[in-house]
Amino acid sequence: MEINETLKKQLLLFQKSEITEYHIYQNLAKANKSPENRRIMEMIAEDELKHARLWKKYTGQEVKPRGFSVWFYTLLSKVFGFTFAIKLMEMGEENAQEHYKKLIGKISEIDIFLEDENKHEEILIDMLDEESLRYAGSVVLGLNDALVKLTGALAGFTLALQNTKLIALTGLITGIAAALSMAASEFLATRAEDTGKNPAKASLYTGVAYIMTVAILILPYLLIQNYYVALALTLSAAVMIIAFFNYYISVAKGEPFRRRFLEMAGISLSVAALSFIIGYFIRSVFGIDI
Fold first, then answer.
1. Domain that holds residue 202
2. Reduced to 3 DSSP states, what percent helix, strand and coil does the chain have, rounded to the nearest 5?
3. Judgement on whether residues 179 and 232 belong to the same structural domain of the protein
4. CA distance linking residue 208 with residue 261, whole number of Å
5. Domain boundary among 111, 129, 147
6. Which of 25, 68, 99, 279 sits between 20 and 30 A of 183, alpha carbons compared?
C-alpha cells in the first residue's frame, strides 16, 4: 500500500515508541531478581521489537529509541519499583491503542498490534508481585497514622508552646514513641493474621514510613523561627506527602486517586485544625506562657 507523508510521520512515531519500550523492558528484565518476572518482561520486549520491525517495513527507516525515556523509566523502576514504572508506561500505551484502532483497514498487521497490546496488559496484571506493594498496607498504616497524629500534635503544640525548637523536640519525642508503638502493633497484628506477610518486614515498613513522615513534618520547625510559618509549611508538606503516596498507589495498584487523596488530606487537616483550637484554649484557660 502507498504511505503518504502524514501517515509515514505517524508510523515513525509508533516505531520510535516501540523500540524505546523494547529497551526499557530489556533494562527492567536485567534488573529483576524474579526469574518469572524476568522471563515475561523479556517476552514483552521481544514483542515490542517485533512491532518496531513491522513499522520499519512501512517507513523504510531505522529509528533510535528515546534515550531520555529509557533512562527515566529505568531510574524510576530502581527508585519506586518496577511495578510503578511499568504501570506508568502502560498508561501511555492505552493512548497508543486508540491511535492503532484508527489504522484498521489501512495497515494489514494492525490487528496483531492490538492483540499484543491487550496481551501485554493481561500479563502485566498477572505478573505484578513486588514486595513493596505486598506491604503497601503496612506503609499506609504508618504513613496515615503519622500524618493524622503528628500534624494534629504539631498544630496543638504550636499554639500551646509557641517556640519552634521546643515544638520540634516535643514533636520528635512524640513521633518516635508513636512510630515504635505502631511498628510493634503491626508486628503483633500481622503475626496474628494469616496474610502470608512476614511480621518483621510488615513492622519495618510501618516503622520506617512513620519515622520518615515524622522527619519531614518536623523539619520546618528546625529551620524556621516563626512558628506560624513553620506550621503552614508542615501542613503543606503533609498534603504533598499524601498527594505523592496516593498517586503512587493509584498508578501501581490501579486505585482511584482523587477519592483517596481527598479523604486522607481532609482527615489530616481537620485533625490539625481541631488540635490547633484545642492548643489555643489550653494555653488561654491554664495561662501557660513558655
1. 132-286
2. 85, 0, 15
3. yes
4. 21
5. 129
6. 279
Is residue 234 a contact partner of residue 220, using CB atoms and an 8 Å limit? Answer: yes
Residues 175 and 279 in one domain: yes
pLDDT number for residue 80:
81
| DSSP labels, 131-162 | HHHHTHHHHHHHHHHHHHHHHHHHHHHHHHH-
Question: 84 and 171 share a domain?
Answer: no
Say yes or no: 67 and 200 in one domain.
no
**Cβ contacts of 30 within 8 Å, gap of 6 or more:** 38
Copy the grid coordinates of residue 14. Answer: 509508533
pLDDT in tens, 135-191: 777 777 777 778 888 888 888 888 777 888 998 998 899 888 888 888 888 888 877
Give dist(CA 65, CA 12) in Å, integer.
11
Element (H, E) at 12: helix 5-31
- Geometric angle at alpha carbon 268, from 262 and 271, rounded to 5°: 130
Number of domains within the chain: 2
Instruction: Give the residues across from 104 on adjacent strands.
Output: 107
CA–CA dist 129, 210 (Å, integer): 24
Its pTM stands at 0.71
| Final residue before a domain boundary, out of 129, 164, 194 | 129
Rounded to whole angstroms, how far apart are CA atoms 33 and 35?
Answer: 6
Separation between Cα atoms, residue 110 and residue 199, nearest integer Å: 49
**DSSP bridge pairs for 107:** 104
State whether 55 and 193 are in the same domain. Answer: no
145 and 233 co-located in one domain: yes
**Average pLDDT in the chain:** 80
Query: 88 with 140, same domain?
Result: no
